[in-house]
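--- STAGE predict ---
source: upstream dedup step, 1 unique chain passed
mode: sequence only
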Amino acid sequence: MKIVYLALGLLLLPGMSWAQQSEKENEFTMSMQIRPRAEYRNGALFPRNEGDEAASFINNRARLSMEYKRSDLSMKISAQHVGVWGQDPQIDTNGRFIMNEAWAKLNFGTGFFAQLGRQTLSYDDERILGGLDWNVAGRYHDALKLGYANEANQLHLILAFNQNTEKKKGGTYYYDGAQPYKNMQTLWYHYTADELPLNASLLFLNLGLETGDAATETSHTRYLQTFGTYITYKPQSWDMQGAFYYQTGKNKSAQSVSAFMASVKAAYALDKQWSVSLGYDYLSGNNGKGDKFKAFDPLYGTHHKFYGAMDYFYASAWQGVAPGLQDAQLGVNFKTSQKVSMQLNYHYFATAAKLDDVKKGLGSEVDYQLDWNVMKDVKLSAGYSFMLGTKSMDIVKGGDHKRWQDWGWVSLNINPRILFVKW
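--- STAGE serialize ---
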């Protein structure tokens, strides 16, 4: 018997020696996230009218993610359950556990790759395409991404085509689509300077928007184009960034579009604790006159990040005509310790287009946020905002500007990596 064991050992020895000398190519990671957020809404998203009572709730994201990597292949599957505490019955036979990410990335070497499946499209500062992580569900696209990258350059081509089901007839009409577009083609290029703290991106996005008659299955696809640039320059204590985008083509109402947006922001770190920022955004608007629709649509960006935390603009709809937005911002950040930081931001809002008998000024919003890294993988955040609106706000967003409008929230983000294996 000892001779048999010795023979088996000799047979296995070359394989064991190879395993010790070779690099561990495969990686598997599993992570979990529990993120409840309690909110008090007394004028969030839309201004409240007199007599409207405040609303309170706790929403929750429960997410399980698994990712596999090797030199020529990456894959990720992530499933989540989102909802409000108390929304589901105690005995639930129709759970809402959905796949929010499911993609594979093939690396062909020398910088070329293809990534296909359900994935986040998050580019630049997320103004046009963003992951919208603030939202309890996030935002994802079903798409094919073809790309190339080296030290200084990145180039992505993104292609998407959506349908309601596996159709048997009726052409390609995408009626009452779950996605806001029927098809999409996006080209993104990013350049990182070698000697300067400079980054620049170019974006071209072509959207096919479905219109037509579902009863007769008559399809009319209108195409809307958005293109522009995003630039950052970060010398020493400065962080400066700017963006410009233009929109043309036709919208879902078959109107010809001519719209644009521009933004500039500068932040300066006074020391390791304090920093200040100043910014201005302009999104063109429509006044209901003329042959062109002039209201810029920021599409699938993370709007909560830019136009005030109370989400009055672009995260929620206008009332009637879309007058565009001017947003002047002043911010202060204070890092009290390695674990605790605070920020205070002021916004002054005005319409971009001049409406008849309506002043442009919409009001002021103040946003405060506290972040505390309680322990590894656990972060507590809280915020409070209030809006001092004008009569013009009542006209373009509804509500009563004489009523006090405020919003508060507390969120706990628990997001550990529970398993990491190499072999």
